[in-house]
């Protein structure tokens, strides 16, 4: 096959379902009767039906990876099942060339009463591989899965992680022309996930990959095109992965208030704001790579000494990505109970890429022990003025030579 040929062609594909079993059985029976007599089946929705996937189109060539992203229930997994032939589309056309390997659901394709070794042969035969071809790869498959001592145990006794290891090992080592991967990689541990991505890197030049994940770092790691789905429809489609990922994050924006997660009633945060910055939609706009002044006001309820301050920055996926601890803190200074006092902290070169971030404050006896108070989202920040990026940090750099 040609290196740059189209392996997957999806044209205006739609799939509908019924909201309950009774109507599903009723419509299914009617459709069978109509098709038996050559009566055309209406493509419009009937009562209690909805479009799980509506009018999706794309082409995927060898060496390309398309990422399907969206909220739970957006239609991603349904689309994958249509692509893999588990569901027939109600509308549209799908053309897939070559051998297709799929990891759509945990343990899908495995016979639970057969051993891992027997399931390897079963899966390979479904993909069209001969026993001789499998025998040439089986040692490598078992070694990659890291479940050698359990390979002859029935799959029904495997943990979720073991099923993922075996499923990915089989799908990747048989080197399919099209590889379909759902969220299952999120089940594995970090070490195995890294192995999987290294394997995908080796496969990708000769394979077309369809990848579904809620982890945007994973998506941005391998995908060169994004389809963002929302209630079955395509909300964004294009090769600007950063734009697609930002559109995904925008779907989950909320105006959540701060949340106290630890409070010993010794000290309390009264106010927090960024000095001389306008707050808009509960967020402060901050220019990329600039300084700003964070001011807080505390009420000392019962402390005798000054608390230790620390602040943690969280990204759009609520991962802690940075921490700033004000220098020269003197936690031996006397602190009068009942006193209200304001503190200012200068944050220098806030060089996070365009997007939304939150700040959490922790007050404690010292750097590592005895937390007095902790509150999430005391400050919401929207970084402006930089190029659209999916990475959390955009470092300041210049070219000094050709």
Automatic annotation (TrEMBL):
The keyword Hydrolase does not apply. GO terms for cellular component: membrane. InterPro entries: AAA+_ATPase, ABC_transporter-like_ATP-bd, ABC_transporter-like_CS, ABC_transpr_TagH-like, Bact_Polysacc_Export_ATP-bd, P-loop_NTPase. Coiled coil: none annotated. It comes from the Bacteria. Residues 27-256 form the ABC transporter domain. SMART domains: AAA. The keyword ATP-binding applies. It holds the Pfam family ABC_tran. CDD domains: ABC_KpsT_Wzt (cd03220). Gene3D superfamilies: abc- transporter (atp binding component) like domain, P-loop containing nucleotide triphosphate hydrolases. Keywords: ATP-binding, Nucleotide-binding, Transport. This is Lipopolysaccharide transport system ATP-binding protein. It comes from Frigoriflavimonas asaccharolytica.
């Amino acid at each position: 096959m040609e290196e740059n040929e189209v392996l997957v062609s999806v044209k205006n594909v739609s799939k509908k379902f019924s909201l309950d079993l009774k109507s599903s059985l009723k419509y299914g029976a009617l459709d069978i009767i109509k098709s038996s007599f050559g009566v055309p089946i209406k493509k419009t929705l009937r009562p209690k039906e909805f479009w799980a996937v509506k009018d999706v189109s794309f082409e995927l060539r060898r060496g390309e990876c398309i990422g399907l992203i969206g909220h739970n229930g957006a239609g991603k997994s349904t689309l994958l099942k249509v692509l893999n032939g588990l569901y027939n589309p109600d509308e549209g056309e799908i053309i897939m060339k070559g051998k297709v390997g799929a990891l759509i659901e945990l343990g899908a394709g495995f016979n639970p009463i057969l051993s891992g070794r027997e399931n390897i042969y079963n899966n390979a035969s479904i993909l069209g591989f001969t026993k001789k071809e499998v025998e040439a790869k089986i040692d490598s498959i078992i070694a990659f899965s890291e479940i050698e001592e359990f390979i002859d145990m029935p799959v029904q006794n495997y943990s979720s992680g073991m099923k993922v290891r075996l499923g990915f090992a089989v799908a990747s080592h048989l080197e399919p022309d099209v590889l379909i991967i759902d969220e299952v990689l999120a089940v594995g541990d970090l070490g195995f996930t890294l192995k999987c991505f290294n394997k995908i890197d080796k496969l990708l030049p000769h394979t077309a990959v369809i990848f579904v994940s809620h982890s945007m770092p994973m998506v941005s790691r391998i995908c060169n095109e994004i389809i963002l789905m929302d209630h079955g429809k395509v909300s964004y489609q294009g090769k600007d992965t950063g734009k697609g990922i930002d559109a995904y994050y925008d779907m989950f924006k909320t105006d959540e208030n701060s949340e106290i997660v630890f409070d010993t009633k010794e000290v309390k945060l009264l106010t927090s704001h960024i000095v001389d910055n306008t707050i808009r939609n509960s967020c402060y706009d901050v220019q990329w790579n600039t300084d700003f002044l964070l001011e807080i006001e505390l009420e000392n309820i019962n402390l005798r000494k000054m608390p230790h301050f620390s602040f943690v920055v969280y990204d759009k996926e609520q991962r802690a990505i940075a921490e700033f601890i004000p220098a020269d803190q003197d936690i031996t200074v006397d602190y009068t109970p009942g006193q209200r006092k304001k503190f200012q902290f200068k944050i220098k070169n806030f060089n996070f890429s365009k997007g939304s971030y939150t700040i959490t404050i922790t007050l404690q006896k010292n750097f590592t022990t005895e937390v007095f108070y902790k509150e999430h989202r005391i400050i919401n920040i929207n970084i402006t003025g930089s190029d659209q990026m999916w990475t959390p940090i955009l470092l300041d750099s210049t070219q000094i030579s050709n």
